[in-house]
Predict the 3D structure of the following.
Amino acid sequence: MKRLLSGIQPTGIITLGNYLGAIKNFVKLQNELEDIDFLVFIADLHAITIPQDPQALRKNIKSLAAVYIACGLDPSKVHLFIQSEVLEHAELGYMMQCIGGIGELERMTQYKDKKKRHVEGVTTALLTYPCLMAADILLYDTNIVPVGEDQKQHLELTRDLAIRFNSKFGDTFVVPEPYIADKGARIMSLIDPTKKMSKSDPNHKAYIGILDDINQIKNKIKGAVTDLDGTVKYDEENKPGISNLMSIYSCMTGLSYEDIEAKYNGKGYAEFKTDLAEIVINEIKPIQEKYNELINSKELDEILDNGRDYATYLARKKMAKVRNRFGIGRKIK
Ligand code: TYM
């Protein structure tokens, strides 16, 4: 049996980047792989590494749970839980800080980017964040971690920490592998296609939210930055705008870039964008309908309770072993 695990931060908007880079793959893996144990969580401890409004955060946690299920995660196949409800994440996160070096944390690209954006008050946790992420993964003997491209560096650090711990204290952790899909792993901003599509972008035209109003989605796609050449051709370097839209198109339809180029040969960007908007809306509309059914249902709490109980069971067993390895506390037989 292989164990899979992944998480998303509940920081408000869930973007098309999160959907195509992460959630859509979770659903695919859930449906296609056999003999797996799949844990998916809401990374609320990660969210508080930057200031959050407590009321909004609570709402966003529930909202992300509903989004996961509305997008197709099946609670009978996937254990869905909230990170902070399994206390061992924070404990192992601290231990990972005890074996992680400041130098390797300071090298993390995401830390460097976030540090630039949050000039007043960079918290300690923003720096130690990858140690908590390593803990999330190693706590469950995870084999495979499906993520978008931007998490690759954090996964490499997780592997380094696991190998370091194992060689110092004896075989304890499974060394995990990232699963990064060929397409959709890096969806770019609609107004600056050289930057990643990010929910923290101050300009809301830069991203599509999974829960955006349908008309808003249409307008955002229509207004997406392209180039003056007007040919639908995949060329990331010279035509990053249309290439990004083509990658969204391809993820949603399964068509290759060559198929898309042939389909729009001799046609302009306007027609391509109209079709893309329709494709995106057709996929997102049923998700929104399901989300609205779920958001205030009791079902959601039951799912999260079950997920928490299962994750706690695994985490407690693992932490007893890790504490013994470190030699802290008294030996548990
Ligand atoms: P987060 O919340 O920033 O993003 C969640 C997932 O969405 C992917 N993603 C994207 N994929 C393609 N294009 C984009 N523009 C895009 N933006 C985001 C991310 O790669 C990610 O897979 N640290 C993580 C959450 C986390 C985690 C974990 C993940 C905490 N612990 C353990 C896996 C395993 C994060 O902040 O993701």
In short: Strands lie at 2-8, 36-42, 78-82, 144-146, 177-179.
